[in-house]
Every structure is written in structure tokens, then in C-alpha cells.
């Protein structure tokens, strides 16, 4: 039997699904060259039928995603908290991580404003652990029973099925302004977190509180955090919009390219730890309320291991599409809590996968197979791959020797933490602590820098500006007034509406500086530098500059007027295919002139004031890089000419470096990239 996990296209004969070798797959069997096609052509029917069934239902949420394989290594620091073996010091566990957007269809653009999924499957020796998180620490709703409502509101309008993969429409804002518990998650979406620069540069959060049990049987409550080693960085809104058209696969490509280039993305897994008290509260924050975070200043994130993504999937469908996560996939030592959002998730994932993956045996698909031995008593069903032996698939039995056996604690069985449930009455109601809907949205707002606040104001102004129903806008303005009057008044001005007064007292909260993305410097591994070259100018520095970029751990992309090679170096993109938004920084090695047959432009100053002319596509590239506060390095006179010709004046602005040594220029770029952008160029208003 062929039980190979992967099948190569190379080296074998083309066969039918039954293994018969084929001598032709281009012509149907016909009665004569011009005659009717014969029904007996089994190969034709098999080929077409298989094709007809190639598509499976996409995920109802998180349909658009990208995945990677990797390894997780435990630090051992979690051992006092949990006996989960994979968190032990130096233990290495294979993983598969899938990142995703939430709202869009499988073919939608990567860079839309949305929450991102961050789901990791740890193939631990004690059974699979799935940490199915997001890039934001809170969720829209407190009770899973509302999930169909928030998703129906966020999805395209049912009449015209627009807009795709967007929250900028009436139904979304109708819902979040009526169900005000959604306001905290919504302000995260309106912040720069909603438009990540890369999957490699996102934090991840388990959102819910989980319960850990250690070897002594003691329990604690924890919240899981993923911290990217490259820092948390975002696109600008204009970059995100341009990329949606220019490269809808931007995040997918970025992840795969980085891994292929050996710039393996890494995250540290950490936990915030809380005493497992009967109230399940910490510093006045209800740990069972998934719309609340615990500021890191109050509970430090303690690192417990490191994730490295080091291999791209070989086949998107087999791996990234068919992977099935479930928050109930837990190893011994990790357990769930009574968060009512989590309870619904524990039901939903298996249920949806039964349809999506056509039956109950999808855990046998290679990507979903546990690496721990499986010895279950599940039988039959669609796509059963196992050939079970024996006659007694039931417990207890005497006919199969009583096998398999139950494990005891000494055999490391999974055991639910024995939590006492207080005497209670059946109700459809929330605890009073769930009624606070605005204090943490305010905390988030107050924790932002001036620039980040500006972005939030613009995002609300854009999204609400896209709404048609005045009552929706007015109701959301009321919510903003309850978060912060300044935020409300700025957005109201942009909408041309009056700013309402707060309808409830503003919460008195301490900002959490850890929530801001600015103010630190970060490693720059795998950042992308566009190198613009002019094949008609001096090409001496092309090879040296490319090597200097690579040696600095950055990814060079050579941009030239045509494909092929320049000075023996392969061209990665042409002036027609490349755009500034694909790069983190620019290195100008020349000042390419407009093509002789280029159409004249009205704004062309063509040497009027003695300024050099520059190909308009590169002019645009330099101007956009400037506007998006990206570092620009210019080599020699030609590079300086390009900066000048692009209309940036003399090349002495912040983040513009001119020099004659490529290595020095690259060093300057690295220093600027460590802060992600040249913030000084944006001032406080960017
Ligand atoms: Fe999910 N979610 N979700 N979700 N979710 C799914 O499961 C659901 C929630 C998250 O890359 C679905 O197999 C309910 C929170 C990720 O394959 C579905 C509720 C968080 C992914 C589902 C939530 C998430 C999903 C769709 C409220 C962050 C993609 C396909 C009770 C902590 C995983 C599937 C992947 C996918 C249901 C809320 C994260 C329908 C009912 C909170 C990252 O089962």
C-alpha cells in the first residue's frame, strides 16, 4: 500500500486514479476524428468528475489565510504552572501555524482592515494542542450565541453581496453601535493593528482565560500572548489600500518569501498568570469577559517558549486549507474556563469542520494527524482511511483482550481540572461585571501616541463615512463620546455631524503604554529594500549594493526598466510591475530617465529649472516612499539627482541618506528600519 504523505509530480508515469498508465490525456475518445465523443471514455469522465469536485466549502469566517510549518521550543519556565510536557525546558514540538483575515472570502485581499487569526497546532507527544487566537486580545461579543449576528453584520450585505472583506458599511456599524460590548474590539480594528505590515509582525492572543494545572495539582489562570521578535508594525492606510489592488497576496507572499529567504519569523509565547480564585477576577477585571484585557503593567507577560516558522507548505490545499483547529484540542495540564464565548467555540469548530471537510474522519488528513499515537474507538464514516482490526470497538470488552485500556494519572491521562461550580439557577443573563463596555476602549485610546490616535480618528472617519444611514453614524458617535470626547468631536467634524455629549460618565483609567506600537527599536531581519537601478547610467555599485543589503539580513529586490539582468544581477521587478508599497525602504542607485516614447505629462518640469528628469514611475515610487515615511538612500550624484527630480528638494530631509559607499547607505537604512518608519517625517499628524 502506498502510504507516502507527499506525492511528487516528477519521475513517474501519468496514471489514472486506479494506477493505469496513460498514453494520452489531451484527446477524448471519439468515433472518428470529427465524430461524437464516446461515453465509454472512463479517463475523460474521471478527469472531469474529479475536477468538478475540487472545491470544498470555504471557512465561514477566516476563509483567507496563509500557513507555515515550524517548531516550538519550551523554556521550562512554565513547569511550575503546568505539567504539559511540551512546555518543558528544551522540548521541541513540530507546529503548523495559519494566519488569516476574518471577514473576506478565500480570494479576498490580504491587506484589508480586519482582525487577523493566529492559530497554531502543536503536534505534542501527549496529543495535539491548538492555540486558536487572534492578533487582538479582545473579542466583539461576550457570549458565543451572538457570533452569527456579529458575522452576519460584518459580511457583505445580502442583497448585492458588497462590500467584500470590509467593515466599512452600515450593517457592521449598526451592530457594534447597538451591541456596545463590541466597542473595545472595534477600536482595536480602527487602530493600526487592523492593518498589519506582515503576519511576521503581529502579536497573537489566546483572548480567553485558560486554566493550567501543575504536577502538584495546583491550578492557575492564564492568558496566552505571542510576541513577534520583529516587533509589532503596521501598514499605513494608503499602503493597505494600494496593496489591495497591486498585490492582494501581499501578506501571504511576504510570509512565504521570508521563510524561503531563511529569515524565519519567530515569536515568544508568554503567559499572564492570575490566581485561580473563585471570583475569577484580577484587579477588578473579570477574567471570564473576553472583551477585557489585563494591562501588561498589572500582570507581566512571562515568556515560556519560542516559535520559529521555518518551512513553507508544499501544497496549499492539502495543508493550509485542510488544516482544522479546535480550541478543545488540549494536552494534559491545559484546560478551558467558563468564558461563555469559549463555550460556544468548543462546539462550533468541530461542527463546521464536519461540513467543510466532509465527514468525521478529517483528523486522519496528514496535516491534522496527531503525532501522538492514536488508538480511538471511532469507526467508519466518510473517508475512513484506517483499516481497523479486531471485533470489539467498544469499552469494556473481553473479546479483544480488553484493549485498549484507560490511562491513569501516572500514564499522563488528560484530566479536566476539578473546579467547583457554585450552586446556581439556570438563567439567560450576564454577570454585572459584563456591563462595562467603554472603560477599556477608553484605556486603549488613552494608551495611544498622538500619531496612533490620528490614525484611529481617520479610520473611524473613513469607515463611518462609507455608511449611508445617518442613524447608524449618530449612534456610533454616541459610543465614541463615551470613549473620549476628543475622538468623538474629530470624527464628528469629519462626518459633518454634531458631536454628542457622553451619555455615561467617562471611565477613570490608567493608560497602558505596552499597547502602543511606537517608541522602541526592533531587529530588521527580512525587511525588503527596493533597489532602483539605471542600466544606462553607472552600474558599478549594483552587485556591491545588493550584497550589502543581503549581508545586513535584509531582502533586496532589484528594480529596473526591463527584466533580465543589470550588470550581471537578476532583476526582481520592473518599473511596470513594482510599486513602493512592496518595500520597507528604497535604495536609489541611479536616476533613470523617462523612456523616449513616454507620454509627456502636464506636470513634467523636464529640466525647466535645470532639474534632472526622472522616469515618472520612479518619481512616484520616491514620492510615495517619502509620504509613507520610509527611509530612502541615494548612491552618488545620480541617486541624489533622483531624489531631487522626484520633487523632494535637496536630499537632506529626515530619513534621506546620500553617500558614495553602498555599505554605509545600507547601515543607515538598517538604523532607520529598526524604528519601522521615519516617524520624524510625519510629525504628530502623519
Ligand atoms: Fe473562531 N471560528 N469563532 N474565533 N476562529 C472559526 O472554525 C467561532 C473566535 C479563530 O486558521 C471557524 O474551522 C465562534 C475567537 C481563528 O483554520 C468557526 C466564535 C477567536 C479561526 C469559528 C468564535 C477566534 C477561527 C470557521 C464565538 C480568537 C481560523 C472555520 C463563540 C480567540 C482557524 C473553522 C484556521 C475559525 C467559530 C470566536 C479565532 C466557524 C462560534 C474569540 C484564528 O468554527
UniProtKB/TrEMBL annotation:
Q: Where is the signal peptide?
A: none
Keyword hit for Oxidoreductase: yes
- InterPro entries xrefs: Catalase, Catalase_AS, Catalase_clade2, Catalase_clade2_helical, Catalase_core, Catalase_haem_BS, Catalase_immune_responsive, Catalase_large_C
The protein's annotated catalytic reaction(s) are: 2 H2O2 = O2 + 2 H2O
Determine if Oxidoreductase is one of this entry's keywords: yes
Question: Domain Catalase core: where?
Answer: 15-403
Identify the EC number(s). 1.11.1.6
Residue ranges for the region (Disordered) are: 1-35
Top enzyme category: oxidoreductase
The Swiss-Prot or TrEMBL record lists the needed cofactor(s) as: heme
Q: Which UniProt keywords apply?
A: Heme, Hydrogen peroxide, Iron, Metal-binding, Oxidoreductase, Peroxidase
Read off the Pfam families from this record: Catalase, Catalase-rel, Catalase_C
Amino acid composition bias (Basic and acidic residues), ranges on this chain = 21-33
What's the domain of life for this entry?
Bacteria
Role of this protein: Decomposes hydrogen peroxide into water and oxygen; serves to protect cells from the toxic effects of hydrogen peroxide.
Family stated for the protein in its record: Belongs to the catalase family. HPII subfamily.
Q: What protein am I looking at?
A: Catalase
Amino acid at each position: 500500500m502506498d502510504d507516502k504523505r507527499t506525492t511528487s509530480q516528477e519521475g513517474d508515469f501519468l496514471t489514472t486514479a486506479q494506477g493505469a498508465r496513460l498514453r494520452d490525456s489531451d484527446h477524448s475518445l471519439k468515433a472518428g476524428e470529427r465524430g461524437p465523443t464516446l461515453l465509454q471514455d472512463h479517463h475523460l469522465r474521471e478527469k472531469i468528475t474529479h475536477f468538478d469536485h475540487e472545491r470544498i466549502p470555504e471557512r465561514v469566517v477566516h476563509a483567507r489565510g496563509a500557513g507555515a510549518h515550524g517548531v516550538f521550543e519550551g523554556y521550562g519556565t512554565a513547569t511550575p504552572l503546568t505539567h504539559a510536557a511540551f512546555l518543558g525546558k528544551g522540548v521541541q514540538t513540530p507546529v503548523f501555524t495559519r494566519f488569516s483575515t476574518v471577514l473576506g472570502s478565500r480570494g479576498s485581499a490580504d491587506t484589508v482592515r480586519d482582525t487577523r487569526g493566529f492559530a497554531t497546532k502543536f503536534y505534542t507527544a501527549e496529543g495535539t494542542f491548538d492555540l486558536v487566537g487572534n492578533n487582538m486580545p479582545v473579542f466583539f461579543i461576550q457570549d458565543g450565541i451572538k457570533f452569527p449576528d456579529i458575522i452576519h453584520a460584518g459580511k457583505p450585505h445580502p442583497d448585492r453581496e458588497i462590500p467584500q472583506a470590509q467593515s466599512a458599511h452600515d450593517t457592521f456599524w449598526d451592530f457594534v453601535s447597538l451591541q456596545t460590548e463590541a466597542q473595545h474590539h472595534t477600536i482595536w480594528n480602527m487602530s493600526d493593528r487592523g492593518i498589519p505590515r506582515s503576519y511576521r509582525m503581529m502579536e497573537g492572543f489566546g483572548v480567553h482565560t485558560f486554566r493550567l494545572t501543575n504536577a502538584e495539582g495546583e491550578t492557575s489562570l492564564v492568558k496566552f500572548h505571542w510576541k513577534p521578535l520583529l516587533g509589532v508594525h503596521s501598514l499605513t492606510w494608503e499602503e493597505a489600500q494600494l496593496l489591495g489592488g497591486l498585490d492582494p497576496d501581499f501578506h501571504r507572499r511576504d510570509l512565504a518569501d521570508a521563510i524561503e529567504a531563511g529569515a524565519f519569523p519567530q515569536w515568544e509565547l508568554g503567559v499572564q498568570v492570575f490566581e485561580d480564585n473563585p471570583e475569577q477576577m484580577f484587579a477588578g477585571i473579570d477574567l471570564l469577559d473576553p472583551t477585557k484585557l489585563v494591562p501588561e503593567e498589572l500582570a507581566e507577560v512571562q515568556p515560556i517558549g519560542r516559535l520559529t516558522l521555518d518551512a513553507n507548505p508544499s501544497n496549499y490545499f492539502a495543508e493550509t486549507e485542510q488544516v482544522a483547529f479546535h480550541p478543545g484540542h488540549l494536552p494534559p495540564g491545559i484546560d478551558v474556563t467558563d468564558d461563555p464565548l469559549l463555550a460556544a467555540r468548543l462546539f462550533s469548530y468541530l461542527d463546521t469542520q464536519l461540513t467543510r471537510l466532509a465527514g468525521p474522519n478529517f483528523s486522519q488528513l496528514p496535516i491534522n494527524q496527531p503525532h501522538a499515537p492514536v488508538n480511538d474507538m471511532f469507526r467508519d464514516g466518510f473517508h475512513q482511511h484506517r483499516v481497523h482490526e479486531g471485533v470489539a470497538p467498544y469499552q469494556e470488552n473481553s473479546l479483544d483482550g480488553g484493549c485498549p485500556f484507560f490511562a491513569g494519572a501516572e500514564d499522563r491521562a488528560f484530566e479536566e481540572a476539578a473546579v467547583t461550580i457554585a450552586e446556581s439557577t439556570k438563567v439567560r443573563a450576564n454577570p454585572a461585571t459584563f456591563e462595562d463596555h467603554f472603560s477599556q476602549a477608553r484605556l486603549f485610546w488613552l494608551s495611544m501616541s498622538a500619531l496612533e490616535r490620528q490614525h484611529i480618528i481617520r479610520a473611524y472617519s473613513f469607515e463611518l463615512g462609507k455608511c449611508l444611514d445617518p442613524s447608524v453614524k449618530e449612534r456610533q458617535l454616541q459610543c465614541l463620546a463615551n470613549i473620549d470626547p476628543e475622538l468623538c468631536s474629530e470624527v464628528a467634524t469629519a462626518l459633518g455631524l454634531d458631536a454628542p455629549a457622553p451619555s455615561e460618565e467617562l471611565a477613570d483609567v490608567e493608560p497602558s503604554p505596552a499597547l502602543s506600537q511606537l517608541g522602541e527599536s526592533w531587529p530588521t531581519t527580512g525587511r525588503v529594500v527596493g533597489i532602483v537601478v539605471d542600466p544606462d547610467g553607472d552600474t558599478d555599485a549594483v552587485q556591491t549594493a545588493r550584497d550589502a543589503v543581503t549581508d545586513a539580513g535584509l531582502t533586496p529586490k532589484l528594480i529596473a526598466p526591463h527584466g533580465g539582468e543589470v550588470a550581471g544581477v537578476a532583476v526582481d521587478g520592473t518599473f511596470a510591475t513594482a510599486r513602493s508599497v512592496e518595500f520597507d525602504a528604497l535604495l536609489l542607485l541611479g536616476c533613470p530617465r523617462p523612456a523616449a516614447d513616454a507620454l509627456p505629462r502636464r506636470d513634467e518640469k523636464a529640466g525647466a529649472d535645470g532639474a534632472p528628469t526622472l522616469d515618472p514611475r520612479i518619481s512616484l515610487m520616491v514620492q510615495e516612499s517619502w509620504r509613507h515615511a520610509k527611509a530612502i538612500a541615494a548612491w552618488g550624484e545620480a541617486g541624489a539627482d533622483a531624489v531631487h527630480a522626484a520633487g523632494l528638494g535637496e536630499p537632506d530631509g529626515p530619513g534621506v541618506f546620500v553617500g558614495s559607499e553602498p555599505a554605509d547607505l545600507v547601515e543607515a537604512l538598517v538604523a532607520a528600519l529598526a524604528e519601522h518608519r521615519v516617524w520624524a517625517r510625519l510629525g504628530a499628524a502623519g
